[in-house]
Amino acid sequence: MESYQLFYKSPIGLISTLCNENAIYYIGISRMNFDDDYSIENEPEICKETKHWFDIYFSGNKPDFTPNIEFFGTDFQKKVWTELLSIPFGKTVTYGEIAKRVGCRCPQAVGQVIGQNPLLIIVPCHRVVGANGKLGGYSVGEERKIWLLKNEKAF
């Protein structure tokens, strides 16, 4: 199956998305900004849907759909990442809450898996915070986590 790379200029940096004809399987955010425009010849529908999702999201609105996604990882990782999809737009939950939901007694183990989330923003790991009110980590920088939460009016 053919793979595609989509680049999307966002307010928090250049987003790089990897997908096949059917699903997105990776979203990362570059620490560098680029001025060039990127386009894909014969862009598959999943790329168009993902761009549309980002357009809605970065305008401060909740998208009413989720592009098809595919996780590659252990069963535990997939369980945690899938649980993240249930966190409502504009809300936050703690690592401990996610751990309870997935039947894990160790919020730190859940935190490690959340830190490995391969589908940033669409799978909203940025909505998970520490029980002490601290933001917790974000693999692409705390300033981006703050921006995303403010965009959703979560605080």
Q: Which structural traits does this protein have?
A:
2 domains; Arc Repressor Mutant, subunit A; 5 strands; globular; alpha+beta
Provide a short characterization of the protein structure.
The chain is of the alpha+beta class and 155 residues long.
How would you characterize this protein structure?
The chain is an alpha+beta fold and 155 residues long. The protein folds into two domains: 3-58; 75-151, Winged helix-like DNA-binding domain superfamily/Winged helix DNA-binding domain (Arc Repressor Mutant, subunit A). The protein has five helices and five strands. Strands 1-2-3 form a three-stranded antiparallel β-sheet, with helices on one face. The chain has a two-stranded parallel sheet with strand order 4-5. Helix 3 packs across helix 4 (107-114). The longest helix has 14 residues, at 45-58. It starts with a strand and ends with a helix.
